[in-house]
# Entry
Amino acid sequence: MITPVILCGGNGTRLWPLSRDFYPKQLLALTGEKTLLQQTALRLADLAEVGPPLVLCNQNHRFLVAEQLREVGIEPAAIILEPVGRNTAPATALAALQVNEAGHDDTLLILPADHLIDDIAAFHHAVSQARKVALKGRLVAFGIVPKTAETGYGYIKKGAPIQDCANKAFAIDRFIEKPDSATAERYLAHGDYSWNSGMFMFPAALFLDELKQYNTPMYEHCRHALEHAKKDLDFTRIDTNAFSACPFDSIDYAIMEKTSKGAVIPIDVGWNDIGSWSALWDVGNKDDFGNVTHGDVILEDTHNSFVYADNRLVATIGLDDTIIIETIDAVLVAPKDRVQDVKAIVTRLKSTGRQEANLHRRVFRPWGSYEGVVCGERFQVKLITVKPSAILSLQMHHHRAEHWIVVRGTARITKGEEEFFLSENQSTYIPLGVTHRLENPGVIPLELIEVQSGSYLGEDDITRFEDNYGRVEQ
# Structure
């Protein structure tokens, strides 16, 4: 049996301002109607002997991940929550341990959640070939046959062909870090080099054996973290202290560069890691002047550019090779050959405490969403949307009062000892320190305007007493 392992824990900082910490690129629909996570899960359909996927994600994304999988009819074997990011090797170790704990000797197919693959049939064929190699006692890396002298990827140099594999698989000569342009040109011309895709296939037990040999502390911390895991609704919440102490490392560094059992299969499947805005330009539908656009865009004398308008009209004049990304609260403008430096902007935002690095104006919650409308020194206004039959936690604030005005639907309100209904154009006031709750008993979304006032308006000013989504401190 093949157990797919979908690694969904990245932040996608190079796709800011669309991708942010609390809503990263794998949860965005960047290349069609479905998100990258949904595309990753759906491309597993029709693969032979494939079980439901194991998904590993940041605990802050858990409800978004579960909802997106539900939308496309995917029921995962488990969703394992990572309390902190520790890169791909510890995440994979958790998955392998989970499979072993269930008494299965499965082959793991490791898939980052944020990649694009155009040729699904070729991908399925590659997986079938890789499984044959993996079952011979190999840890298989999928190498991408390079089309250009790319400097943004690591490379794998293949060695001698592996016997009985019909020249489909090769020993790994070495892994190479992202090269400079001249070196990348040599690799492209040589023919023995492929891009390191970050996709792998190997028996779970073999991976754990190699991890114990080459990184015993990582193995032990991951084992301890999973042994002390707790169920939280439909999620597996691993031990925070054990996993936080785990070394930070990728599968490449922790295992593949050290093991004698590695193999690489070069594949051509229309792969792209969607790692930057220029990558999205590469795969986008271009007009006669080489431009890719989204939203309300007017171009004048503009060529080979990517213009993304999320909320308003964006017009350009006389631009070449330029990236423009407009969201409701931020605009990015950059030359196309400088998009790798977007990470520096995100770093600066975080260093100064700017929320634009983490949150969009609209913030999603398991019960619905809220969107900031206006914010002042001692007040802010939000539009709150509650899904049908959803209910917020029973809660209280120490520093703010709230006014609620229903603009659509019907609300059931708990305020102290009172419980009552509000319909459209009706309102209520929640004084500071009063226990309260909001529920949508109807079959259409509930929308209301919330006006907060007080000395402190941060989202961490909340004490929960009851919650349907497991967010009460035990």
Observations:
- The mean pLDDT is 93.
